[in-house]
Structure formats: C-alpha cells, structure tokens
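Bug: token stream looks shifted between consecutive jobs. Job 1:
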Amino acid sequence: MEKSTAWDRTIRVSRAAEVQELVAHVPLFGSIRPESLERILEQTNARLVEDASRQFISRQGQEVTDVSIIMEGWVMRYDLLADGRRQILEFDTSGDTVVLFGSSATHHQYFVQAITPVRRWMLDAKSFAAAARKEPELHRRLTLLAFAALSEREDVVTDLGRRSATERIARLILRLLARMDRAGSSKGHRYDFPFKQSHIADATGLTAVHVNRTLMSFRKSNAVHIDNGVLTVGDINVLLLLAEMTMAEFRALKRKSPA
C-alpha cells in the first residue's frame, strides 16, 4: 500500500460564505436554517482543511474524533486484510459525509484515504452528535442518509455475491456517475474519472487483469471509454444493459438525497 506525506491546511473564509456553500452543496444541510447551521459549526469547532492525494483521513483502529464532509475531491473507505488485500467499501465525493455512521464508535473500523486532493470540513464528532440531538431537522436528515447508505450497501452485497464481473463493473461505474451528477461535476457525457483499475478491482472483488479485459469490452460495445483520467459515456443504454439496470433505477440513484 502506497503511503503519502500527511498534511492539511486550514482554509480561512467568511462564516456567511461557509454556511451558504454548505446549504447549497451538502444534502445533509439542505434544509437547515442558516442561523442553526452557523451555530452547529461553532459548537463543533468546524474548520475547512485541504488534504493531499493519497493522504489518510483516518486509519483503522484510530480513535474517532471527527466527522468529515467532502466539498471537493474523492476519498475511499476500505478494509485491509492481514496479507495486504484491500476491499474498497465506498467512494465519496463532493457533498458526501464521511465517517458519519461510525462516529458513535470509539475507534475507526476502516481506513479512509484521499484518492485526489480533497477539500473537506472537519467537525468534532461528539459535539456533532450532541448538535444532532438538539436539531430535529438535522436528526431527520441524518436518519434518511443512514437508510440510503444501508440500501446502497445491500445492493453492493448482491453485486459481489451474485452478479457477473461485467454487471459488477457496469453498476459501479453507474453509481459513480450518479454521484458525480448529484455533485454537479459532470460535463455532458464526460466525467473526470480519477480511479485506477486497481480501485475498480478492489471495489468489485476482481483482479486488475479481469477489470482491464472488461473495460476493453465496454469500449468495443461503445458503452464507456476511459482515457487519461476521463470517462466518456458512449451509449448509456448499452451501459445500463450491461449492468442489468433500468433507466428509472439510474435516475433514482441520481436523486438519492434526504428530502
């Protein structure tokens, strides 16, 4: 596993601008009153930080102290076996809350690591839990997010347990595209795609060689093309067919957020 030099840089911006950005881009805070959100930021000692690519945000066994909310970039949460094998459990990007559902535990069960340079909020975990108990709307949206995360993880269990390699990879790509669409980072049919074949392999339980062959078949069928960190959707209907997913299901993925 590659290591990186750990660093972060606190970013100074006005509190009003901070609140506006959080309400606009983070589903968790979408309907929280600005004055309530400002109070939550103060109570949780919230600060904006930047992380380098490959920096560890948290490590397995480390004490839980913070909740992270991603504003830019990608992170991954994964388990690491004794022999070095890695299972990626989740990818997160702009607007996603990381380490949220494990924040009631005393120590992290998994690693969280930046894939790209990341800009994120850090909130004190205990203070955040206390604030959620006092703010009904925040508590409601946390509950909805927890159920949405559980539903997605159940889908992934089915993928890993029963679906073919083609279906697993196609469905992973569609989930990532849905997240990028929700984050507003799509560019028509083109997407920044910072994931290596090893990321896809470790998220789908396949080998990098198998992933490479499958992606080549996707290119030949004009489903997707991945070149130099950019993914282009050739024919979304072909990709949906490969994934055994309907357009209605894909649209539902793009809409996933607490109401």
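Job 2, same session, no restart:
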Amino acid sequence: MKNVEVNFPLIEDITMEVAKKYAMIQPGESNTKAVRAVFFIDPIGIIRAMIYYPMSLGRNFDELMRVVIALRAADAFGVAMPADWRPGDAVIVPPAGSCVVAKDRMEAKEEGVKCYDWFFCTKELSEEKVMNAIKAK
C-alpha cells in the first residue's frame, strides 16, 4: 500500500524488550522472534483483550474489528457479548448485584429482556443503536 497515513504509534523492538514484557516469545516458535500479537488497550491504558497468532498465521482483521466494536458496545451499554457476537445480535445482561434474589430476576419483566435462568438473560441491541453509540465516543 502506498500513501497510507498511520495515525497510531508503531515501535521497533530490536532488543525484544517489549516482546518479552508482553509474553510474545512463545515456546516452540522461536527464541529470537516474537509471535504476532494484538493488544486492545483502552484510553486509560488497560489491556482489555489479547489475541496471539503463531508466526506462520496472519491476523484476521474482521475479527479484530469485531473485538473493537464489541468492547466499545459492552462499555456503552453495560452488557457482555456472547461468542461470535456481531452488531445487531442479542447481548448478555449481566446479573444484578447480590441484593437481587434469583426469583426476582426471573420474574422481572424488563422490556426486551429474556431470561433463561437467574444468571443468564439476554436482550436485543440493534445494529443502529450499537454503531451510533460507538461513533459518539
């Protein structure tokens, strides 16, 4: 690719100092080369997710974008995302604090929430609502 502007920091790690700190030297791969890794670091510097790839395998950019959108949506709506979640799919409503009795959660009729058990409830979250929320940040 030509004339592409990179607007995020890149590092060169000749001494492997960063690779060692981030556990990117994997047994069975190489003692002198770091594996491919993606770290999702939020605006306050917290590592939220990590994905490691062997050196022989390229990264899945569709999955990387899905993770970014899912993390931002989870933060915006206070929900959790099931495996393979995509914008527009149902999300997981985390259980309330310990003051809520299990029976109360099952009998509660919060609009759009479907409970399968006291600890597992889902709700619909439209793709439009998700994308608007993450664009607003």
